[in-house]
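## retry 2 of 3
previous attempt timed out at serialization; input unchanged, resubmitting
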Amino acid sequence: MALIPATILTGFLGSGKTTLLKRVLTEAHGQKIAVIENEFGDEDIDSDILVRDTEEQIIQLNNGCVCCTIREDLRSTLSDLAAKKRKGELDFERVVIETTGLADPGPVAQTFFMDDEIAESFLLDSILTLVDAKHGDGQLDTRQEARRQIGFADQIFISKTDRVDDATVDALIHRIKHMNPRAPQRKVHFGEVPISEVFDLRGFNLNAKLDIDPEFLSGDGHGHDHHDHDHDHEHGEHCDHPHHHHHDDDVKSFVFKSDRAFNPAKLEDFLGAIVQVYGPKMLRYKGVLNMKGSDRKVIFQGVHQLMGSDLGPKWAPGEKKSSKMVFIGLDLPKDVFLQGLEGCPV
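## retry succeeded, writing output
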């Protein structure tokens, strides 16, 4: 059976997750979606959409979607859904998991790596984070959970942009980009976003390419600092919100690039050691690697202490073989990582 794509929907309180979920659960989009709701949510999905039956945890909706609340743990809920699908008792094509507004999406994402049974049934398609343009800056200042949600994201939707001026939205986008340069950002009107932009993003499995704005990959490895400096220099004098450009967020990212092939054993040893020490602070890390002895790209990724790799497509004839990795985490010592990785090629 083909793997069932799963999407994790996260975002701080009031960012529009419920609006987005309601659309998924009620709109006639023709897709059969199973929605798993973390029932400690601050605002439950309205009861007029769901017929709550105490015995049965899984409810069929009139547009073909299925809804269930997590009673025990996510693993058993996913396992249950996959079993029912295999037996033909339930018909759905994908899963959406809503985390609570205060949640760290890490453990939810880890479920897809940790458990063989889950990994054989589901593919984590992407982590979507919603950010409220009006309150986002303040939440990022005061709540580490909000910063972590940005760090985990594959795609970021900024909602309620109509409630603030353009300069505020631009400053927020700029700030988020420094925290997580690999997640595309899109302005959406209060969670109203085309379903096609929510699903099949293949954000999590990288699709063998790493799209990061080139200015973040300037060759000197100091793309961030250099860019910050320019930005302040240009706008410092007459900027209405100069403080927007001086956030020193604990969630940051950096990139490693090399044209030399990695020695697989050395790389594995180094990454294993790094993950032992810094795993809890490593939110997301991924890369496309050129490994000695392999004619295929190796797609590598991880969440906290758990990492995995897959063989990607073959290197095309004439394609320059190079490795590129991005690390997003809490106060990670960039120099330790970069120096260590420099020692891993053949």
